[in-house]
Amino acid sequence: MAQRSGQALEATFAGKRCFITGAASGIGRATALALARAGAELYLTDRDAEGLRLTVADARALGARVPEYRDLDIADHDQVAAFAADIHARHSAMDVVMNVAGVSVWGTVDQLSHQQWRSVIDINLMGPVHVIESFLPAMMAAGNGGHLVNVSSAAGLVAFPWHAAYSASKYGLRGLSEVLRFDLDRHDIGVSVVVPGAVKTPLVSTVEIAGVDRDHPRVRRWVDRFGGHAVSPETAARKILAGVQKNQFLIYTSSDIRALYAFKRLAWWPYSVAMRRVNVVFTRVLRPAPRRSASHPGRAPGVTATVTPSATTER
Fold first, then answer.
1. What are the phi and psi torsion angles at 238 (to 5°)?
2. 166, 171, 261, 271: which is the annotated catalytic residue?
3. What's the distance, CA 100 to chain centroid?
4. What is the longest distance spanned by two Cα atoms in the chain?
5. HSE (CB half, 13 Å, CA atoms) of 71?
């Protein structure tokens, strides 16, 4: 079965030029290595320079060509545009563009800082926009078709508690993908949006929760329980590439998210009751710090609010 799957991937991706963000770890790394095994030509980026170099070395050890890679911040349009210009000056247009990189910050609106909102939106939504505007026009002009993959999240489908900033970015990415699915169809460019649930990536262990001490034993137990339901990055990568082969729009990496989204669409009232209950449980378990006062718009004393630099790969 695995051999047949590998042969199918080779038939689809061998020799294809694939651009991947978030390639240093998690889903991005697993997808890059799966494509390396399938004979794809890889163009990789991540802001984790050391992790990116390791992925490049491992992909080349598998026999893949990696003509270009660069550590950069996809939230910086100029950096993305410059890398795209350098690639297009030396190589043909990409066949597959994959927006995988992302960060996650949870919190209620009284705890989230403005910088946290901006970081999540800039990386998770504007980052893919920067990649799309830098790489898709060349793909369209080449006239050879192709595929765009945007990794959204289960939080881009349903209203998980404390996910306002994260869901804003991920719902936005899903909406963008739906429009492009039709806009790019006449160019024979497929568009898929990936909606993972829990995946065993650095994002699970580094997710920031505004107003909450991540090192508190109660919180650590809760996060560990969440991680216990996660699928491996390799499983997620296999699901993604299989979905691309079939030109699926929504690509699920686990059946529980498919079922939850169906529940939302088919049973809105029970879904609403359930989500209210989940919100109550969530708040009881995490017990955020006291609300910030209007006279002190900064975050509560002692609360960390810097987006974790290592959390660059989608869950």
1. -60, -45
2. 166
3. 4
4. 63
5. 15
CATH superfamily name and code, 2-286: NAD(P)-binding Rossmann-like Domain (3.40.50.720)
| 18-53 pLDDT per residue, tens | 999 999 999 999 999 999 999 999 999 999 999 999
Phi and psi angles of residue 308, each rounded to the nearest 5 degrees, phi first? -65, 120
Helical axes 49-61 vs 26-37, angle rounded to 10°: 20
Q: Which two tokens stand for residue 39?
A: 């004979």
Pairwise CA distance, residues 83 & 115, whole Å? 26
Query: Could you tell me the end-to-end alpha-carbon distance of the chain, in angstroms, rounded to an integer?
Result: 27
pLDDT in tens, 265-313: 999 999 999 999 999 988 887 776 665 544 444 443 333 333 333 334 4
Where are the alpha helices (H) located in the chain, listed in sequence order? 2-13, 26-37, 49-61, 77-90, 114-121, 127-142, 164-183, 202-206, 217-227, 233-245, 255-266, 268-286
Annotated active-site residue 261? The verdict is no
Whole-model pTM?
0.86
Q: Contact, 17 vs 91, CB < 8 A? A: yes
Q: Bridge partners of 97?
A: 19, 148
Count of C-beta atoms within a 10 Å radius of residue 246: 10
Domain spans in the chain, listed from the N-terminal domain onward: 2-286
Rounded Cα distance, 244 and 253, in Å: 13
CA distance 241 to 174: 18
In order, the DSSP letters of 179-192 are HHHHHTGGGTEEEE
From residue 74, alpha-carbon distances to 78, 141, 288, 308 in Å are: 9, 23, 31, 15
